[in-house]
Amino acid sequence: MSTLRSVLLVDDDDDLRLIGEMALVDVGGLVVHTARSGLEALELAAQARPDVILLDVMMPGLDGPSTFARLREQPATADIPVIFMTAKARQEELDRYQALGAIGAIGKPFDPMTLAATVRRLVER
Q1: What tens digit of pLDDT does each residue of 95-118 get?
Q2: Before 60, cis peptide (omega within 30)?
Q3: pTM for the model
Q4: Of 23, 59, 69, 77, whose Cβ has the fewest other Cβ atoms within 10 Å?
């Protein structure tokens, strides 16, 4: 049985956040926290301590890689696994995110019916 219970979904796109939340809650049975910016994610991740963070790459202000670096600097969030979500899912991009320390990347648009299973597979690997 999976130990994955809670997810922080970070995306500046309201529709993607809503679809992702519904997919993770309704299909995946997970507790989901959402943030619409990197700064909001930093604060919420420290408070909620999710089991994994789904982090959009391209956001205004603090982008995904910059948010990831700041998460790693905070003791409360340094060990939380991060999965990047990106519309640019080319292999060199995916390799770059893993080189930063992410446990994986999910292409957007994602399949709502398989999102939770994909997240679980990446976390448990």
Answers
A1: 888 888 999 999 989 999 999 999
A2: no
A3: 0.94
A4: 69
